Amino acid sequence: MDTEKDEDWEKEYYELMRIALLKWTKDCKDCQACRRKQSEDEEAERRAERRAKRREERKKIKENIRKQKKVWKLAQDRARAAKDKDRRYRKKMRASHRKKVQWRKKRYWLPMRIFHLLFWIRPMNMLIANVSQICDWSRLSNEIHVSKYRSKKKRKKRLLVNVCQMRRSPP
């Protein structure tokens, strides 16, 4: 508390002394305080001028960039229009479009087929026939659920049986 009071008192004292000096010396351009204050004011004015100059420069730069962008855009648009008009470019675009279409057809053929089977043919069949005709119950039999190795073995066995039967039968 005492130190704060001392600091306040000191500030007040210096302020009062400055005022007293200003009163006694009306034209006191020589005193140090006045010179300091004057130099601070001049510095502040210079800073403000510099800020204003920079602001103006920035505005000019932004305006120039905006104009340049417009010019670039127009040039790009003209180039694009010329390119679109060009016969060879149109030919290339048509060819690439055809390739894309073919690729899409190849890519989407299977999913579309599945979609078609599930959501078009099957409901139509259901409307027409009984459930037992639509659902192939034989697919749920044990043969499907055996491993590939076993099913391969079974196929070979069947093939051998068929071959043997062909040999036995008279020509």
From TrEMBL:
Lineage top rank: taxon: Eukaryota
The segments labelled Disordered in the record are 35-62
Protein name (record): Uncharacterized protein
Q: Which organism is it from?
A: Caenorhabditis nigoni
